[in-house]
Amino acid sequence: MLERLENIVQMKSGVFAKSGTNPDLFYIQSTDFDKQLSWNKKLNPILTNSSKFNTHLLKVGDVLFVSKGRNFFAVAYDGAYAPAVASTTFLVLRVKSKIVLPDYLVWFLNHPQTQSVLWSFAKGSSIPSISKTILEQIEIPIPNLSKQNTILELHKLQLQEKKIQKQIGKLRQEYINQLTYKSIE
């Protein structure tokens, strides 16, 4: 089954805000994630919470999609830093349908084929961007929840394999370095 994103998520832009006194609200930015899309540092609150942020507060399971810049990517908000709002770099997607898992949506948006489609719609040369209107029109194949979970498990195993291969490569390089250095002693 194919569905347009607009039919399965509520989508809104992140907020523009400046740091405040007595900060108690996290301001999530694209630079807060590393290449593996994990939190890249210990974040500190930089905004002062007020009622103007109430409709923008992130909920666990919200999908943060970086829609501006050189890298488009999606992450599921896990609540590690709360309360929080997303910066304007993000479109915040809140799944409104029980037929799709937030993590499956993240997987789909980060998939190379989807990324290729997204880049074909990107506007701007110095700072590429994907508009909310364009993202809402993207069609996502939605298998049953069991299959979504299977895809996510397979993806998790793929990431573990990459990590192990990287470690093996590093160990192999260290071994060769030691072996060649000992050969000249």
TrEMBL record:
InterPro entries, A to Z: Restrct_endonuc_typeI_TRD, Restrct_endonuc_typeI_TRD_sf, Type-I_RS_S_subunit
Protein source organism: Flavobacterium lacus
Keyword match Ubl conjugation: no
Molecular function GO labels: DNA binding
Keyword terms, alphabetized: DNA-binding, Restriction system
Entry-linked Pfam families: Methylase_S
Coiled-coil residue spans: none
Protein name as annotated: Type I restriction modification DNA specificity protein
Family from the record: Belongs to the type-I restriction system S methylase family.
UniProt domain Type I restriction modification DNA specificity: residue ranges: 51-153
